[in-house]
Design brief:
alpha+beta; 6 strands; 121 residues
């Protein structure tokens, strides 16, 4: 019966919804916490796909920002003093570790440790 429910769901659900669910499952299997479940000021490990990257100056210093989406929500990874990171770009899957905070309504991790992971992990 469980297979039948999955088959019906895969036929009736939106593609974006199925992709988000698959991304969340990948994050949980890799030992990461979903963004929706991350608490403020707590060290976390998140895994997701980079959606967009921008350079925004903060206090006169360049800051590279990457929006990471894990299927449950987004968190902005901010590297102060950086303009680029080799190999990092939109569409790339990344596991990031750091302390999450909220500023101006956005979830942020400043200067996270990170590793680029294969998409099929």
């Amino acid at each position: 019966m469980n297979r039948f429910k999955k088959a019906v769901r895969s036929l009736t659900a939106e593609t974006q919804e199925l992709d988000a669910e698959a991304l969340q499952n990948t994050a949980v299997k890799a030992g990461a916490t979903t963004v929706a479940r991350c608490g403020d000021r707590v060290p976390v490990t998140v895994l997701g796909t980079i959606r967009a990257m921008t350079i925004r100056p903060r206090a006169g210093v360049p800051a590279l920002e990457a929006e990471l989406y894990d299927g449950s929500g987004t968190v902005t990874l901010v590297w102060l003093g950086r303009r680029t990171i080799a190999g990092l770009g939109p569409g790339r899957q990344v596991k990031a570790m750091g302390r999450i905070t909220t500023s101006e309504g956005r979830r942020l991790i400043y200067n996270p440790r990170y590793e680029m992971t294969p998409i099929d992990q």
